[in-house]
Each structure stands twice: as C-alpha cells, then as structure tokens.
Design goal:
The chain has 21 helices and 15 strands. A 6-stranded parallel beta sheet has the order 5-2-1-6-7-8. Strands 4-3-10 form a 3-stranded mixed beta sheet. It is of the alpha/beta class and 468 residues long. A hairpin with a 2-residue loop joins strand 3 and strand 4. The chain is 50% helix and 15% strand.
C-alpha cells in the first residue's frame, strides 16, 4: 500500500487495520508512507523503523475501555520533495495494489499539489508496469463522493497526456470512495505522554492516542476489494460495501454535524474541549437536544439506527482521555457548515414543517463567531474576531464569504453591542447567499426570523441566556 499522508488518523485507522489483517494471516502487506508537504513525520517514522504505539482509550457501553498495541504495518516513509524517484520506484512494483490518501480537505483540490503528484505516479505505473494488477485508489478525505471527485481531477490532469494513458486509467485504476471515522486528537499533553511512556517502559515519538470506536468504510465491489486488499476479514472496523451512503450520512450529519453546530457556541462561551461542552450545564443539554430532536430528523436514514448512532456520539464526546479542542474543530468552519449542517436544516424544515431552533442558534453563532475585526489583532496576523472584548484568531479559507456580509451590514464596524437592525441586515443577506450555505436558507419558512432573533439574543444577552 502506498499512503499519501503521515498523520495520526491514518496511523490510528489505516495502519492499525492493515496490522490487524497481517497478524490474523489474512493479509501480508506493508505500507510505504509519502510525506508530500514540508511538515510531516517521515523522519520519526524511519527512525523507529515504522513502529509506533497505538493507545485506544475511551468509554465503551458506559464503562472505561483501554487497549495498547505496537503497530508494525508501516515499512518506511519517503519525502516527496527529495525522494520522488523512490516513490516512482515503489508504485512500479507489482505487489502494490492500493494507494490511500489523506491530504486534508484543503489539499483535495485540483489546484493543490496532491492530484498532480498522483497523476505522476499513475503515469509511472503505466510506463513501467502497464500490464500489472489493477490499482485501487482510496481517498479518505472527508469530502462527499471523494472517489469520483478524485477520479475527475485525475482525468482532467491526464487530458494533457496521451490517449493511451487515459485509456489505461479506465481499465487499470479503480477509484473508491471511502469514509474514515475515528476521533484522534494529536499528540497527548506532556503529562499524559510521560505517564503513558512510563507504563510502556520506552519513549515513542509517534505515540498515537485514539478512541475505541473505529470505522473505515470503502465503497466498491466487496469481492474484488477483498481479493486485492483483504483487511476487512480481521477487523470489524473495516467495511467493504457497494454503497457506503448510510455510513457517510450518519457520520457527516450526526458526529461531524454536532461538532460543527456546537463549535462557535462553545468557543464564544469560553469552553475549550468537546468533553467540557458535553458536561456543561447549558451546552450539554443543548447538544443532546439538538442532536436527537433536530439532527436525527435531519438525516436521510431511518430514525432507529440514527438515534442509536447518536447515543454513541454522546458517549464518544464524553471520552475523558481525549482532549478534542473546539479551536481545532472550528478550522474552516464555513465549509463545514455548508457540507455538514445546512443540508440537515433543509431536510428538517421540509420533513418536520417547523424551524429547528437549535440549528438556528448554531447558524447565528457561526455568523457572530466569524465577524472579522482589525482592531486588537496582532499586526500582520491572520484574521481575528472579537467577543466580549477578547480577540481570537479565525482560521477559515472561506471567511470572505461571511466577511462581505458583515461589511455590507455594518460598514462603519460599530463598537459595542451590534444594533438589532444591523443584525437583521446581516442575516437577511447572509442566509440568502447560496455560495455560503450551498442553497438559500432564507427561503425556508421561519428560519430567517429565528436566526435573526437568536443572533440578537446572543449579542445582547450572551451565550448562556441564548441556550435557554
């Protein structure tokens, strides 16, 4: 397997799945990891011969669960900038049958570097091993229909090559959509790391802490996938299916949707982590109410399995061993609202014939959190917002979509609490903006009024009063 990306999620899910299949005798494969950006873990991976410790900690069926294992599925890591010829050599080996990527949503674009790199390695395979076994390309970025989207990008770039290569792509490369679901939050804090390494009896630069829950759903013909990549045999976490729509819908709407809907409210309330929010006197009940009463009805799946998955989401949010920070979750918040939450709002209004009040407040908090300011921010820094006198950095590639509505509604950038008429102008413009949400939310009966009212209360009375 050739893997683009050196991050923790791929270690916690993909490498762990391959390792389990190897240990069970179902697979006999290793992973060559490609670090395709200047920042990554290639040096540490090679220094440890690809070995790393995986610690699974969390709540499972109401009680604590912990398992520690040494993962040996990674063979080596290559740095794209300096070892590209070695990457080409790896892709030309007949043993290679799978390419996996996790280059983040920002890197999963035609203009980013990854699609061009992938075309190059595929063309190398075409030149050096044209009659080799089929290649499965499995993107894991959290983008709907990531398989067909990546295939379309590759086809567009391949149009600059000869027709024989494009014909080879159609017969020898199969792009499979996939979905990964495992909360993995980065390196443990120094105190937690020291305690873990004391128990282990060794230090591990790649120590990976994750939750017990895991899912890697791969869309394709199960028998064909299993013939090339039989990793589902040894792990319940891996699912091969001809349609993974149900898995995608429940994760996107219920897990990711909850994260995205709650993030601005939690940050405006000064709550740092998901667990703190789940146990907060006001945010906790709001989360549970919005999840079960609005996001569950807003999914395109039967109520019973949706509610069962939602119950698991709450248990995962309360994991005492993971520090899942809202400031990280809120990165590129606008795109996440458009993909994860806005479709649930539309479906809820259409099916329930009423306004989802919790999601209206979430939209209001989203707009308020992303109001950019210039005063009080460090010189030359990224855009900042301000709430109750404190400034905070905003990391959002689509911030201009929100900022233009604030500028139009409040060109003078008034200080102090924002007047209600300004907020009305803002929500009227912003909710009608299809580029912002994917469609106009202003056309949904009652939603504009509910969001305006929620934003006014948020601005003048604060977060806790708005939560009810």
């Amino acid at each position: 397997m050739l893997q683009f990306g050196t991050g923790m999620l791929l270690r916690a899910l993909c490498a762990a799945s391959v390792d389990a299949a190897n240990r069970a005798g179902a697979f006999n494969g290793r992973i060559v990891v490609v670090q395709s950006t200047p920042h990554g873990n290639a040096r540490a991976i090679n220094a440890q011969d690809g070995l790393f410790t995986l610690v699974e900690r969390g709540l499972l069926d109401g009680g604590p669960s912990e398992r520690t294992r040494l993962i040996g599925a990674v063979a080596r890591a290559l740095v794209a900038d300096t070892e590209w010829q070695a990457v080409r050599a790896a892709v030309a080996q007949p043993e290679l049958q799978v390419i996996v990527s996790n280059v983040t949503e920002a890197g999963f674009r035609l203009e980013a570097g990854f699609p061009a790199k992938l075309v190059d390695v595929l063309h190398t395979r075409f030149e050096r091993l044209p009659d080799g076994p089929p290649l499965y390309v499995i993107p894991t970025e959290l983008v709907p229909d990531n398989g067909p989207r990546l295939a379309a990008m590759i086809d567009r770039l391949a149009s600059q090559c000869d027709e024989r290569f494009r014909a080879w792509l159609t017969t020898h490369v199969r792009f499979c959509s996939s979905l990964v679901d495992r909360i993995t939050t980065g390196s443990p804090p120094p105190e937690a790391r020291a305690a873990l390494e004391a128990d282990l009896g060794y230090s591990d630069e790649l120590l990976t802490v994750t939750e017990p829950y895991a899912l890697w759903a791969i869309e394709g013909e199960p028998a064909a996938l299993r013939a090339a990549f039989p990793i589902d045999v040894a792990s319940e976490a891996v699912v091969f299916a001809s349609d993974i729509g149900m898995h995608r819908e429940r994760k996107l709407r219920l897990l990711n949707g909850s994260h995205t809907a709650l993030a601005p409210l939690a940050l405006l309330a000064g709550v740092a982590t998901v667990r703190e929010a789940a146990e907060h006197a006001r945010l906790g009940p709001f989360l549970e109410r919005t999840l079960f009463q609005e996001l569950v009805p807003g999914t395109d799946m039967p109520a019973a399995p949706a509610r069962a998955f939602a119950a698991g989401v709450l248990e995962r949010f309360r994991n005492p061993w993971l520090r899942h920070e809202w400031r990280v979750i809120a990165t590129n918040q606008t795109m996440k609202m458009r993909v994860r939450v806005a479709p649930a709002i539309e479906r809820f209004v259409q099916h329930e014939r009423r306004v989802p009040q919790g999601l209206a407040l979430a939209c209001a908090a989203h707009l308020r959190y992303l109001r950019p300011v210039s005063e009080g921010a460090p010189s030359g820094s990224a855009p900042h917002g301000r709430w109750r006198g404190a400034t905070y950095p905003i990391v959002d590639a689509d911030l201009p979509l929100v900022a233009r509505h604030w500028l139009a509604a409040d060109p003078d950038r008034a200080s102090g609490p924002i007047p209600r008429d300004t907020l009305e102008r803002l929500t009227t413009r912003a909710l009608a903006d299809e580029a912002l949400w994917g469609s106009s939310l202003a056309r949904l009966p009652g939603f504009l009024e509910a969001t305006t009212q929620a934003l006014a209360r948020l601005e003048h009375e604060g977060v806790e009063a708005s939560l009810g």
